[in-house]
Amino acid sequence: MRDLPRSTERSPYATTVKLPGLFSLLTAVVTVGLIVSCWGFIFAESQGKSPLISGETSERARLIFGQLFGSETWSFTGSRVREIARLVADTLAMSAIAAAMAAISVFVLLPVAARTNTEGSSRFIRIPLYLAARGLFIFTRAVPELLWALVVVFVLSPGIFAGGVALAIHNFGVIGRLGADTVEDAEQAPLVALRSSGASEAQSYLSGVVPLIARQLLTFMFYRWEVIIRTTAVVGFVAASGIGYQLRVDMNLFRYPEVGQLLIAYVLIVWAVDLTSTLVRRAFK
Amino acid sequence: MPKRIGVGFGLNTRLAWVVLFALLLFGSLLFVDWRHIPNKNAGSGFGTLLTAFLAPDLSIENLQRVTSAVWITVSYAVTSLFLAALIGLPLGVIASGVVIGRSKPLLPLAIATRAWLGLTRSVHELIWALIFVAVVGLSPVAGIAAIALPYSGIIGRIFAERLQDVPDPLIVSVGTAGANGVQSLLLVRIPSVLPDTISYLFYRLECAIRTASVLSFVGLGGIGFQVHIAMSDLKFDTVATLFYSLLLLILIVDLMSRTVRSRILS
Question: Is the minimum CB–CB distance between A136 and chain B shorter than 8 Å?
Fold first, then answer.
């Protein structure tokens, strides 16, 4: 029998089926184990408590939703509209302050946060600064806005500004990471050209990097603004202002028609910000 | 296929947006009550906080408390993300409309699903949690449902977008080979979006851990609950430990995401 010449080229349609290796097996075992033990813990914790779906809860859900979006919700007075408009304005103000503060502070820190920026300076200054900036981004990102808010209101009076600072701290980490990654992945040619033609480090940063990141940071800021506006409402729990605060107060007093009105206003501003942000990001593409 | 021509945005449009946002920002600053911004603690407060974060409480007793809080938070996060993926991924397939192709009768279903996904994700998890706790009472399942609902909305939307963005040549090539919508979904679309989807689910796990840590605001346990207690006892070094535990969790998720992704892609 004659040996057939083996084809070294693989058909582009052939899919490679790999046998599960030790790594895949381990990943699968750990994943399944984690999910099962977490569910086990949750089941144990919810013993003796009301289940999610039962006759009782569906009856209560019907009652609550009936009041949330019932006839009383839709019969509001002019003064109530002004009251809600004020809360909406406070919420929008908090979110805008937060988005701007986060973007501006990233802009200030970005020169040291990207590996590619400061090739001229000494390694002993550059690397610790880089690590410190990246570390700060990860840490501020890891802690959610509401927990930052608890710390912030220890030194700042509760209000729009304190809420804005708490939102800005977390989003500083998110935008910072996105921004630094963008600068590192960006085209290096302009920077190299500027450096080799004798521009100082500061000059080449200003003309080689800033035009790029200014636009990117604006895009990121508007993208985060969509997320921030959603969260602003709950940061109001701690910052004692805006829609979120009033929502929690009315919820605790079982004033469901009022809660329903606030929920409608909340969803409307979330959609308005989403739309604005999409338009702006398209304009800056 | 004709390429959609976008609306031309010139420099003027961009400038207009920047000016508009700047105006909004200045308007916002007018809403701030500037009188008492730094409160009476502020003088010594910054120093106290900074010292605490430089020297977190690492005593055995505190670490035990932190570990059990971390476990509660991780359990809430993992279970709610599992549920969200279980609901969100199939809804994403329906919302993408890739299976139904040109069959008109099913189009309203895709649109309705898209609207549902949009509505659930517009409302923040904690506001859902307020509603769920009002309906169900103070039970872990209320918290899990509150996270899973908006997360299924965002996972569904992202999955739908990814499925739609699979390059046409791939779809056409299996289409001419006789594959129907379901076959091209299973053989082409899902495998080609799998690595990105898995990365995205890890990112969502990171978000779920953060959200689960603040379920204390509706009365459930976990990291946030311990932060509340430590803040009211003015034990800032304990707060620091709890914050660092979140940092550790996020680093672990990041590492897992990178490892799994590089394994899938290689």
Answer: no
